């Protein structure tokens, strides 16, 4: 079994660096109609023919809603410091804005049990599961949804109180906005670039409104947001390919980070695509750019791009390189490059690597799953974080994605990101070699303190 090894001097080995695993509510909980849970946009999207591979849906997922105690045993056994989870908005709030007590009690029991096990809870408020009744009133294209999010954030932060150490308002708003409203492969399945950027602005507005509420209700908790990012590499040394790489990064990385840190959208993008500019009302950017305690970075791979006369940016599939089962290039240097580059461009708050992992072609054979590629992936990317810290980046934590195989959005159950193998027919959990390697690394780290 491949070991995870870091330099003895690495700050990742010190007690103040946080290691964790992560999941998201819709991907693991199942129980989509239990205890008053309302339909979400992903329940609706899954029911549309041809939208999700094999017609898969959020049922049964990993049945985490009923098996959470077993799953917390797994988490504790890994030796992690923290667990990152999301709250299902449709599970905790009724259509008229009241608390759904049964849904909230589930999270209270889970969070209390984490505390008893000395595992720190990192909670994401929005991981893509918008209540369907809000989508029917326009969803994120409707500015009012940002204010409904604030009401939801108020409810959750009041009800969960000091059980939560750290709140992220949003997970990957680029995915919600662009994949959901421009590309159309995620819920709600729209294909309009202008509406996508308007949805993106309203998501960021929701972040700002949510930050206000979190500061008021949970002043001792950390509060920030989580963005997916990756560097773009020019396909050639031609100047126009290099420009395309910058435009691609402005579109994905900076369009969602620059408003939060500097109160404006990237000038490079807005000059090139003025027709996509969202409507911004007075006071919006001040709300969006409130100070945050951290920014979470989700990293999986890089992009390789060239100039395209029509769209400006053309994405190239990986060449003769190592790829994951998703077809994504394994490129740990991109994580170091991304972190160092962001640190050079912005005055950053502390960073957390809130997701990092890979889909593998994993199979259960005689009770074991030998995912050697994932072991190497974790090792190389943890060393990439170490290298970024050595170059002066303030990274405070790392969360492996994911604790267990789960519903992988438009890919259904066809892709396996977990360190724990899930048999979806029996719901049996099996530690993969990567889980054993991660646990061995973490327990050895704790023993060396």
UniProtKB/TrEMBL annotation:
Belongs to the glycosyl hydrolase 1 family. It comes from Halomonas aestuarii. This is Beta-glucosidase. Substrate binds at residues 27, 127, 171, 300, 401, 408-409. The keyword Hydrolase applies. Keywords: Carbohydrate metabolism, Cellulose degradation, Glycosidase, Hydrolase, Polysaccharide degradation. PANTHER family: GLYCOSYL HYDROLASE (PTHR10353), LP05116P (PTHR10353:SF36). It catalyses: Hydrolysis of terminal, non-reducing beta-D-glucosyl residues with release of beta-D-glucose. The active site is at 172 (proton donor), 355 (nucleophile). Its EC number is 3.2.1.21. One of its GO terms (biological process) is cellulose catabolic process. One of its GO terms (molecular function) is beta-glucosidase activity. It comes from the Bacteria.
């Amino acid at each position: 079994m491949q070991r995870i090894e870091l330099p003895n001097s690495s700050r990742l080995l010190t007690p103040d660096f946080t290691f964790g695993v992560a999941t998201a509510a819709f991907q693991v909980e199942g129980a989509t109609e239990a205890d008053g849970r309302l339909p979400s946009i992903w329940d609706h999207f899954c029911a549309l023919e041809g939208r999700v591979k094999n017609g898969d849906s959020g049922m049964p997922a990993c049945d985490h809603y009923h098996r959470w105690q077993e799953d917390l045993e797994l988490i504790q056994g890994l030796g992690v410091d923290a667990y990152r989870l999301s709250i299902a908005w449709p599970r905790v709030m009724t259509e008229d804005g009241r608390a759904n007590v049964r849904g909230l009690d589930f999270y209270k029991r889970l969070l209390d049990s984490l505390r008893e096990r000395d595992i720190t809870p990192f909670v994401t408020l929005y991981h893509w599961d918008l209540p369907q009744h809000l989508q029917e009133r326009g969803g994120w294209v409707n500015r009012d949804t940002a204010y409904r999010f604030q009401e939801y954030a108020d409810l959750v932060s009041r009800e969960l109180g000091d059980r939560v150490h750290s709140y992220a308002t949003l997970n990957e708003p680029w995915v919600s906005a662009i994949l959901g409203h421009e590309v159309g492969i995620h819920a709600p399945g729209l294909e309009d670039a202008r509406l996508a950027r308007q949805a993106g602005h309203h998501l960021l507005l929701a972040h700002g409104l949510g930050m206000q509420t979190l500061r008021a209700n949970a002043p001792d908790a950390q509060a920030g947001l989580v963005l997916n990012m990756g560097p773009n590499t020019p396909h050639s040394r031609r100047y126009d390919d290099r420009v395309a790489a910058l435009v691609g990064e402005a579109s994905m990385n900076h369009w969602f980070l620059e408003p939060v840190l500097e109160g404006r959208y990237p000038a490079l993008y807005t000059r090139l695509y003025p027709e996509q500019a969202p409507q911004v009302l007075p006071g919006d950017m001040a709300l969006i750019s409130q100070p945050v305690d951290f920014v979470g970075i989700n990293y999986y791979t890089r992009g390789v791009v060239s100039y395209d006369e029509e769209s400006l940016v053309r994405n190239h599939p990986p060449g003769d390189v190592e790829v994951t089962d998703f077809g994504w290039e394994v490129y740990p240097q991109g994580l170091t490059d991304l972190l160092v580059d962001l640190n050079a461009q912005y005055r950053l708050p502390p960073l957390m690597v809130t997701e990092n992992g890979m889909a593998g072609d994993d199979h259960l054979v005689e009770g074991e799953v030998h995912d050697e590629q994932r072991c190497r992936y974790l090792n190389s990317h943890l060393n990439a974080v170490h290298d970024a810290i050595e170059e002066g980046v303030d990274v405070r934590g790392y969360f492996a994605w994911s604790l267990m195989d789960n519903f992988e959005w438009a890919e259904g159950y066809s892709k396996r990101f977990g360190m724990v193998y899930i048999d979806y027919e029996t719901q049996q959990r099996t530690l993969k070699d990567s889980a054993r390697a991660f646990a061995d690394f973490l327990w050895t780290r704790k023993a060396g303190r």
